[in-house]
């Protein structure tokens, strides 16, 4: 049983127009086995929350705490956070030309586990996971994310999630850019990985459709840098009906931004 | 003459990221720039530690200390006389010497204002006679080679023949019996002048004439050592021929001269690797490599060079390719103070093919001006240039290339790809692609990209558990991979290790 605690987190980013505060007092507790959906309008800062938790250097934490089983994540580099058990499935996974997926996955697994995986079981585990995600075996020899379609990138992220077995998984808009079939395959991968290692999930999403496949226990509405409403799965249905306008600052609306 | 400067992210290159994030990232990167001063200091410390660096030793140097600095006609005559050369070779040297005097210093490419020909030694002769086995070598020289791992390579028969050049004289040379039986000649060029005078005279200086360029002229005047390879018709040398050489004398010019002749339908892969110790005064390496690829023959010439940071590396490499022949240059340039090197291919007859794959790594205080030249003189000739460069610590790398297709070379094609990787914000990369096409029926493609190791790439790999240094190493190795996969295994490993060494201190 693990716990991820976010306490009154404030974070900012430097922009051309100067420093901009994006996270404004985020509080959240996630336990192993729980699935939290974090929903909100574009620009509300939900992806910033995901990247801040994982330690992207662009975002500067102003105050607050993030504890994973009592360990202070904010004092750690991104690789240390990963080793502590945090995984971020990115919305825009980055290409690394010339580095094969096989090499990358084995290196990552070795770093996270602190030892190289046994060759025989590792190969089988990798092959099985790829098969279930309906990935071409040739995929393993391609360069990391290079020339991948949107769907392939998301599958590759979920493949890593399955293989690296974190304590907490942050899924940043994992549903974006996927057609119905791909969404189902990717979601099933997440569910399989969760069934195997019972991690906690923070699922950042704009739309409710992924919630049909990955059932949230708790749904949060995130707006203007913090949580504004929390409820059960029924809150997602409500959002489906009403949209985010009720949670937007005065004078703006989601439809107006679009 | 067109000059295209590509600084910063270019069309078709770079790393995908959302546009807004790009802007924010640039801001972030600018702030990080201040940290770079500290990194430079770290670099200095690392360079200071190079005493422990595997290739950073140097041996006692009784022969080198005695040699005289500077070059004049008498030095040229002395070199020739000492080698008991025929008159025609002395004439060739003198032509080179006169051309060296006549030709101005290049006013383009690397900064040569600190270059003074009189600062260098032009002929150093370390041992009296050529050794036949490793055991015959003097102790200190053998120790040097042991540290380079040559005997191991020899024992495990990774190499089919080893010509190890120590200072100006090739002192060790061996070739396996089966190659000899096939009629393959693999000797140092001095020996070739004595033992195969007709063959050498027929080809020497025909591809790179004495008057070709200033440093080529200097080589012609003062050359010593290098390899001579002749592969008879139809012979396929299926293991790479290798030559190791080193500079071991401060201020000593290294002017090896290599001549490779691949007769009709033959194949040979020649591998040149060199490492040089660190010295406080400037050294000069001005080599010439001439290659003749006869009809339907194929030659691959691979170089992995790691000169110390005070070496001027000014090399002329050129191949003449006949009908249906194939020439491949694979070139890794790491280290040196300044490198000017543009492997060239003259595609003289129909269906000749050529490719150049090169990697330049410019670290602090280094300027790698490298590229390729492809001259299409006949119909249906094709060429490919893949040039990759890495710049870091304020280093500067440039691709300088020429593709020339003459009138009448119909159906010819050329494809040029230049990829530059900038590791930080204060290094530099330039592209100077010269194209001269006088024929309509040709296909030409040129693609140039400049990319930066982005914070997003580092973050992505780090978020998967890799430490920053390891993540940076993985990105750079990935960039180099298209070149390193072309190398024999042991050289690929060496190249990766050299690149990693060069990357030390690049992350804060």
TrEMBL record, chain A:
The keyword tRNA processing does not apply. Residues 4-249 form the ABC transporter domain. Gene3D superfamilies: P-loop containing nucleotide triphosphate hydrolases. PROSITE patterns: ABC_TRANSPORTER_2 (PS50893). The keyword Nucleotide-binding applies. Keywords: ATP-binding, Nucleotide-binding. One of its GO terms (molecular function) is ATP binding. It comes from the Bacteria. Signal peptide: none annotated. PANTHER family: ABC TRANSPORTER I FAMILY MEMBER 6, CHLOROPLASTIC (PTHR43204:SF1). Belongs to the ABC transporter superfamily. Ycf16 family. This is Fe-S cluster assembly ATPase SufC. The gene is sufC.
């Amino acid at each position: 049983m693990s716990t991820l605690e976010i306490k009154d987190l404030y974070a900012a980013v430097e922009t051309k127009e100067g420093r901009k505060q994006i996270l404004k007092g985020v509080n959240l507790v996630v336990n192993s086995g729980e699935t939290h959906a974090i929903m909100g309008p574009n620009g509300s800062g939900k992806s910033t929350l995901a990247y801040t938790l994982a330690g992207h250097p662009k975002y500067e934490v102003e105050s607050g705490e993030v504890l994973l089983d009592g360990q202070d994540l904010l004092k750690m580099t991104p690789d240390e956070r990963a080793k502590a058990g945090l995984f971020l499935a990115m919305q825009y996974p980055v290409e690394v030309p010339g580095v094969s997926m096989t090499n990358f996955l084995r290196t990552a697994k070795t770093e996270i586990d602190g030892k190289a995986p046994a060759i025989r079981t590792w190969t089988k585990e990798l092959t099985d996971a790829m098969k279930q995600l309906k990935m071409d075996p040739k995929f393993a020899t391609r360069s990391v994310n290079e020339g991948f379609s949107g769907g392939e990138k998301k599958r590759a992220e979920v493949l890593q999630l399955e293989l690296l077995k974190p304590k907490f998984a942050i899924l940043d808009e994992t549903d974006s850019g996927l057609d119905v079939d791909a969404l189902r395959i990717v979601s099933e991968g997440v569910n399989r990985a969760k069934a195997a290692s019972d991690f906690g999930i923070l699922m950042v999403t704009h739309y409710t459709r992924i919630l049909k496949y990955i059932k949230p226990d708790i749904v949060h509405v995130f707006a203007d840098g913090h949580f504004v409403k929390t409820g059960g799965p029924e809150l997602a249905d409500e959002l489906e009906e009403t949209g985010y306008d009720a949670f937007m600052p005065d004078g703006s609306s989601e439809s107006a931004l679009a | 003459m067109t000059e295209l400067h590509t600084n910063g992210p270019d069309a078709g290159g770079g790393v995908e990221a959302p546009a807004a994030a790009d802007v924010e990232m640039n801001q972030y990167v600018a702030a990080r720039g201040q940290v770079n001063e500290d990194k430079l200091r770290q670099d200095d410390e690392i360079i200071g530690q190079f005493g422990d660096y595997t290739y950073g030793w140097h041996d006692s140097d009784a022969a080198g200390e005695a040699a005289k600095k500077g070059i004049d006609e008498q030095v040229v005559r002395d070199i020739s006389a000492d080698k008991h050369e025929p008159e025609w070779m002395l004439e060739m040297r003198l032509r080179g010497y006169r051309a060296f005097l006549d030709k101005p210093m290049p006013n383009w490419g690397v900064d040569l204002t600190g270059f003074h020909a009189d600062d260098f030694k032009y002929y150093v002769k370390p041992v009296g006679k050529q050794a036949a086995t490793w055991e015959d070598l003097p102790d200190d020289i053998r120790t040097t080679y042991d540290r380079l791992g040559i005997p191991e390579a020899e024992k495990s028969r990774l190499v089919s023949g080893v010509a190890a050049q120590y200072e100006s004289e090739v002192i060790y040379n061996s070739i396996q019996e089966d190659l000899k039986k096939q009629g393959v000649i693999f000797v140092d060029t001095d020996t070739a002048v004595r033992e195969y005078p007709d063959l050498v005279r027929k080809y020497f200086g025909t591809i790179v004439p004495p008057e070709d360029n200033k440093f080529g002229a200097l080589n012609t005047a003062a050359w010593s050592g290098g390899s001579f390879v002749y592969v008879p018709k139809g012979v396929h040398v299926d293991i790479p021929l290798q030559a190791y050489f080193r500079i071991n004398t401060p201020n000593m010019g290294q002017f090896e001269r290599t001549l490779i002749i691949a007769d009709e339908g033959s194949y040979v892969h020649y591998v040149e690797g060199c490492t040089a110790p660190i010295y406080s005064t400037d050294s000069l390496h001005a080599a010439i490599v001439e290659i003749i690829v006869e009809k339907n023959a194929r030659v691959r010439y691979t170089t992995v060079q790691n000169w110390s940071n005070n070496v001027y590396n000014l090399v002329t490499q050129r191949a003449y390719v006949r009908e249906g022949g194939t020439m491949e240059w694979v070139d890794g340039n790491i280290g040196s103070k300044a490198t000017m090197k543009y492997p060239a291919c003259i595609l003289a007859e129909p269906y000749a093919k050529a490719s150049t794959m090169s990697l330049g790594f410019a670290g602090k205080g280094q300027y790698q001006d490298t590229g390729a030249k492809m001259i299409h003189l006949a119909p249906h000739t094709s060429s490919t240039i893949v040039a990759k460069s890495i710049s870091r610590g304020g280093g500067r790398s440039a691709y300088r290339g020429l593709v020339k297709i003459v009138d009448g070379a119909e159906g010819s094609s050329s494809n040029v790809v230049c990829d530059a990787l900038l590791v930080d914000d204060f290094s530099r990369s330039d592209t100077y692609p010269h194209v001269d096409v006088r024929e309509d029926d040709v296909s030409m493609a040129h693609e140039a990209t400049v990319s930066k190791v982005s914070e997003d790439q580092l973050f992505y790999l780090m978020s998967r558990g890799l430490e920053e240094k390891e993540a940076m190493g993985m990105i750079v190795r990935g960039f180099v991979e298209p070149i390193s996969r072309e190398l024999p295994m042991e050289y690929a490993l060496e190249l990766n290790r050299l690149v990693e060494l060069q990357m030390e201190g690049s992350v804060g």
